[in-house]
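Async update (no meeting this week)

Hi team, since we skipped the sync, here's where things stand on the single-chain job. The sequence we agreed to prioritize is pasted below, unchanged from the tracker. I ran it this morning and attached the output directly underneath so nobody has to dig for it. Comments welcome in thread, and please keep replies under the output.
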Amino acid sequence: MKSILLLSLVIPVFAFASGPHLPLDLSFEESQELWSEHKSTTKFKSLKTKTDPFVAKAIAGGEILGKWLKKINENRESDNQLLLSSSSSSSRGAGIPIDKPSKYGPKTIKLRIEKILATAPKEMLDVIYNELPMTVKNPVEDKVFIEFGRKISGTYQSAVRWETNIKKWLPYYKKNQRRDVRGFYHLIKEENLDQKLKNFSSLSSQDQERLSGHLYKICLNDKVEGKTCTTRLDKARKKGTVLKFKNKYWSGATKNWNSFWLISKPRKDVVWNSTSPNTMKVTFKDPKNEKIANWLKENIEDEFKTDTWQMEFNFKENGTGLAYLEFKAGVTPHVKSGNIIVMDKNSSIDEYSVKWTIRHEYGHILRLPDCYFEFYDEKEEVAVNYQLNVKDLMCSRSGDMNERIYKELKRVYYNK
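Output:
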């Protein structure tokens, strides 16, 4: 990964592209909040209106599951709660690796629902999908309820994301396919790439098709239409000019890759120089609330540090261009206008997901872009998403501050 990042320091041209901003690894509870927000901010009337029947079934079932879990747990001891997450299935998760992307849409949701209906206990299906009254006690073994509860909640989360996000922004997600970095990602790891492309016709048919798929994607990265990319690649294969094809689109693919990592339009209120080379000083508008101020400082300083370097987080009452914090009920956390971190008022600041979120969103205040990606594949008729590095704070909830982020901050903000 590091070698890829050092390819070029071209300032990204796609950073902070307009469009929806929704983390990929939302929890079951966050998906419930997202669905609640969708119903309250749209002209929502019924799932039966313009909604795929299996998407509707997945959402309705997930909503019932959430209410049923709450009812069951209200009648259980605090140390015996029925939970869909555990120490082996933590809120951090394993992320969504770039080489194992998530794919979902009405077709995949239909298949998942059908499998659940065919394998889950009747006692659960009757309540969750057949509208029988919710029981106070769990009617099956706890491990069975958890096993199928996770499958039902996972399908619910995909359905909610589809209905509230992909479907709403479908033209955007279709167009977004041109930024799919997987072609570049795989080609840069290919040994003797240029030599193989130079002698393309001598490769096995399997290798030719594999490399052609990657080459097609880097052509898309250069904002070329899919049909045109196919035509040009076919022509290059026939003429024996596949290496020339790759070289033609390599610069655009590199810029696209860098757009997920490199800072553009850096802040002007950061102090980091040779006077104190191991400390990067930043300022933030005083929230006038001691608990919130301490929470901010502790989280930011705890995240943005290395063994030999640290961030110093300071508050100011006033100042031009200061970053500041807002809380609004029912929102998806995001950064607005480059300086405003907007957090959900309904979420406890003590929750792990909220602590991770404020650290991630502050990364955006420093102008670090997101390094996760989502688009709609018209051929497969599914939404596709992945995280470029599941160990990176700006890519995934399973990620943290790392050397990559430190080096990028130093490249932009350190003044000798």
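Quick observations from my side:
Residues 1-18 have pLDDT under 50 and may be disordered.
Strands lie at 102-104, 279-285, 310-316, 324-328, 334-336, 340-344, 372-377, 382-387.
Reply here if anything looks off.
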